[in-house]
Amino acid sequence: MAQKPKSRTNRAIFEEVGTGERQVAAATGSIDKGGQGARGAVRLWLMLIFALVAAMILVGGLTRLTDSGLSITEWAPVSGALPPMSEADWQAEFERYQQIPQFTELNSDMDLAGFKSIYWWEWGHRQLGRVIGLVWAIGFFGFLATRTMPRGWSGRLLGLGALGGVQGAIGWWMVHSGLQEGMLSVASYRLAIHLGLAFVIFGFITWYVMRLSRREADLLQARRSGQAKLFSMSTGLMHFAFLQILLGALVAGIDAGRDFPSWPLMAGQIIPPDPFYVPDGAGGSLPAWRAFFENAGLVQFIHRTSGYLLFIFGVIVWLRGRRSPMARTRFAFNAVFSALLLQIVIGIVTVLYAAPLPLGILHQGMAVLLWVLILRARFLARYPHVQSVRD
């Protein structure tokens, strides 16, 4: 008796031959799988430090503009956290201030009440620095202890803490220069280094916050669509803006912004009079190279000229950014141009009114905002938000 043939099932057209096992699709998202840690929590922690450092820069500016930076003549990182607690303590602190040249030659008519007003600015500035250090330490070691630090981020965040420590040391190095004989304020070049490092730290924090706002896989994908030329140009704009910030610190260091309250000319001419003359106090003059740090006319002229050149280069970068196919990138460069234009106007008005306190701090605050906007535009040039062709 013939056997009935076995029934056969139709084989799928894409079925693997030689195996009866079902194929499992490859897992996706391997870049983001594991090691990501608490990215959101780390980002929030950095945003808190971001706000504190921004406040630190502004309070530092107010401390300089009110000539308060030399009111505390000692560096006591731990014991200095407490202000004078009694009238005797206040008197002792005031007597230490009375020993430095700023008091004997500039503020000899100051009473205890006047000293307290400048003391609180400097104490607040130093206290804010302690708070930033504490917030960093709690967050950093907390993420390490709980093993929630994102992979590859411990070195970066440890570097932030190290830079903060260096900044504290440079702050005292700056103050110490103003306590020396013949000095009525801190050395302007030390002030520029102090402010410059503050903006470097602020820049790293800003960049890290933006990186942590997106997954590593998304960043890798976005970088393939990055605009190398625009990124390079925005990097140049960032460096140029940083140079202008340093030059602004030199202006603030010798109160050069309060001289030559006219624009566009200075004392009726393009180049201010006697740009390389620095008196030595004995009827002679100091070497010409010191004029780049101590001649108010030359220092302000260089800051003005650099500002014009920065604006011209900013326009070139903006025109390039407007051609980006990415809407968010275009918007970011539009924001940079708007802030740059506004900063130029604020700078001119500040000069015309001889740098009063409100305008001086507004000018510095606008520099902080412009710095952040440049970094944001640079970030989007490298890691654009990919959009559809329809968008």
TrEMBL record:
Cellular component, GO annotation: plasma membrane
Residues reported in the UniProt entry to bind heme: 303, 363
Pfam families registered for this protein in UniProt: COX15-CtaA
Record-annotated membrane-spanning stretches: 44-63, 127-145, 157-175, 187-209, 230-254, 301-319, 331-355, 361-381
Molecular function, one GO term: metal ion binding
Biological processes per GO annotation: heme A biosynthetic process
Main location per the UniProt record: membrane
Function per UniProt: Catalyzes the conversion of heme O to heme A by two successive hydroxylations of the methyl group at C8. The first hydroxylation forms heme I, the second hydroxylation results in an unstable dihydroxymethyl group, which spontaneously dehydrates, resulting in the formyl group of heme A.
Protein name (database record): Heme A synthase
Source organism of the structure: Pelagovum pacificum
Gene: ctaA
